[in-house]
Amino acid sequence: MIDSDRANFDPDYVAKELMRLDNVLIDKLCIYLLGGAVMAINGLKPGTKDIDVIVENERDHRILVCSLKKCEYYVLQTQDLSRPYVELSATAMQNLEGFRLEIFIKYVAKKLSLTDTIKQRAYRIYQGKELTVFCLSNEDMFLMKGMTERDRDLEDMELIARTDIDYNLVLNECVEQSKGDPRGNIWESSLYEKCVELKEKYGIEVPILKKLRKISERKMNKAKRKRES
Length: 229
Hints:
Elements: H1 11-24, E1 29-34, H2 36-41, E2 50-55, H3 58-70, E3 74-75, H4 83-86, E4 91-94, E5 100-105, E6 107-108, E7 112-113, H5 116-121, E8 123-127, E9 131-135, H6 138-145, H7 153-161, H8 167-179, H9 187-202, H10 209-228
Helix pairs in contact: 6-7, 6-8, 7-9, 9-10
């Protein structure tokens, strides 16, 4: 698997790759960064193995993929990825140095959606000739990590939690995301379980834990009654 033993890349490398991308673009493009790259940029981690990117639509996805190919990135196939990466349902592209981009369209791992509230909380880190780059807020990063199952997600949640995030924003976004999920998934339950793990492993007290449990139980009981009726 290509996933094993990949190197970490520092924030300067990330910045250099974003400028390379800007130089080959022939159309305006806006992208949103999340995950390890944002943590590295914010000084929470020394480096990252990849950049997780969300774009708003198929048009932006097409422009980004075509432009990355001009920068000598190639698309990774399913057999080249470990299971957690396959389940993210992203377009994975990697350069010859092993640096990777995971590109999502509107949704991260078919779960977290790029809502207007998330975009409003995001902050701009790069404005180039054609490329504009935003980073997601720590609150939305925490929520995203609470919904995915990749290696180091829990460790990353612990690092983010120590930045004094606004948990009410996390809760509100989680509730709204869950409410709009077409498959009826209870994201409050997923986040609750991750926060319990966070407390057990790192001693992090998440102040919205009881609220998450209460909402989860109410929704699960409602779903059970609906099935039985």
